[in-house]
Amino acid sequence: MRPFAEVLNELCNNPPDGRGKVTNVALAAAVKSRGGDIGHGYISQLRLGVKDNPTCQAIVDLADALGVHPAAFLNGRRDLHTAEQPGWRPTALSTLFEAVHPPDRGPWSPEEVAAAISSSGQFGSISASYIRELLSNTSDNPRLKHILGLADHFGADPAYFFDDDLAARVDSELTDFLALRELGVVEFVTRLAERTGDLSPQARAAAVEGFRQALEVGEGWSFPLNSRRTSADHT
């Protein structure tokens, strides 16, 4: 992802609405006129890359003052829809927790997610208690590195936390994914992929055919690799 400073500089030097270059002082004034509070000194540090971890609210305020969607700072879309007022999507994180986890276990715990993000070192540290606050909407102002770390853990586009258009597409796909997981498709594909190097073409074909038949009759499916027929085909 492009550095925050690079995106901010580009937007200040070439505002989408065609106005001239926006100075740090002018940008701070524009933020203040909209109810925000970001000093021109801090904006200067962000543009220089001295500071690189703004809060969610700072991202939203800067985007609003520059006339772009906050997702623009996260490699997402710049254009705003008419009357659109984007911000942190409070249901985004809980959706990811519910839907995105290995097929052979339940959802990740906040402790597991916090440990994974913090141990990587790439996105700084985050505590399990803070993740719980985000999930319960007790807090709604994570910093940029928190957003990037959470997105990375769940394999999501960081813009998902801000962009309703992107979220609608992703949530639709996740709904389909959850339905497939409920039917056993995800586990089937995962286990088949794990063993594909040990199976003959006949065994793989038998596994796929057994699964297809189970779906057609609407009955529970017993993994074909445990059957005598498949074992006989194993090489």
Automatic annotation (TrEMBL):
Top-level taxon of origin: Bacteria
Single GO molecular function: DNA binding
Domain HTH cro/C1-type, first and last residues per copy: 126-161
Protein name stated in the entry: HTH cro/C1-type domain-containing protein
Species of origin: Lentzea albidocapillata
